[in-house]
Amino acid sequence: MDTAPGEGIDSHRFRVTHPFHPLQGQEFKAIAWRRGWPEDRVYFVGIGGNPDSIPVAFTDLGVPDPFVVISAGRCHLRLRDWIELADLVEELKR
Fold this sequence. Notes:
By secondary structure, the protein is α+β, with helices and mostly antiparallel strands. The protein has helices at residues 66-71, 79-93; strands spanning 13-15, 27-34, 41-45, 51-55.
């Protein structure tokens, strides 16, 4: 498995930051970091001692999404999200 660039993953603790993830707000010690498609994942020992992983973007290890930073909670959907929603509604109407 890959580790975070520049230093060993052993020194990293992370917090789950995704607002809708069940582990939101909890902190864990990262044991590995794997670059992948479509997303990078961080691996950790989860609740109950079981191995687990989560997308890096759902943690404070990831680069903050510019949209989220700029919107500061004022807007929850991007333009592309609205377009996707409109397409889904049209598809369900058929």
